[in-house]
């Protein structure tokens, strides 16, 4: 008997593909919609290699209101949506803000309009960027949402507002927004992982690409911050733990939740840039070359999350540590060198 059908938008992407795997493992029937603007169609086959099941896949752009409505009308048995589909480069969002507002907001609004007449549970992919530089640490869900540092961050803030206001007046809609910290790592099979286009904007894929020879020296942006070793601190979470949080959120929505709720998803502790570099060296035996550069504009000093609410309500807890994050990311980097996607 097939499980409950869950639409995963952006399901061939980094976090989306890992979540599809965990949904299948949990007995759900994920259906993927992705326009492949930032991912590879081969990921569908990789998911099948891991799980033994090939999820249904539909290639279209959710910014197309007509196609989005036709799709949902043709699939009345979809009971939940996990919405990942969004552009996510902070730097690009500053150069092309309208591209980000159009894609990240239209796709969400179209989904809400197309499903407004039926009961729908939605898990939304949000971000800890909404907190900015926090006033105190660890930052919890009651912390103020500050003016966004980027257009990308602002699209997450706006999306949360849209969801909160819509769920307040539409009794058919229940929403959980998951505010991620810093997802890293890859599936233990090394068959799926992060596939950045061009030069990676995030630390760990840049580390793995440098280690395998795709990049030059790693530049650490500043070593004079007020932290234990002078480098910025972030809450890094293994992408598989993050994927499992989405399954936990879907299960929570099947109960009797409030119309709109927010959860931090992280480990509850921070690691500095240098700690991540040294953890990679320890986990893999690979020596990294890095230099200290100037601070990067817009970087906050440190942030890590209070995740007690997610642990309590969702019965979820991050289980994988920094060494497992680094070793799995390295195994994935080696895999895609031999098997380009």
From TrEMBL:
Report the superkingdom from the record. Answer: Bacteria
Any one Gene Ontology cellular component term annotated for this protein: cytosol
Kindly state which keywords UniProt assigns to this record, in alphabetical order: Carbohydrate metabolism, Galactose metabolism, Isomerase, NAD
Reaction(s) catalysed (UniProt annotation): UDP-alpha-D-glucose = UDP-alpha-D-galactose
Needed co-factor(s)? NAD(+)
The EC category is isomerase
The GO terms this record gives for MF are:
UDP-glucose 4-epimerase activity
- Pathway, per record: Carbohydrate metabolism; galactose metabolism
Q: How does it assemble?
A: Homodimer.
| Name of the protein described by the UniProt record | UDP-glucose 4-epimerase
The taxonomic lineage of its organism, from the top, reads: Bacteria, Pseudomonadati, Bacteroidota, Sphingobacteriia, Sphingobacteriales
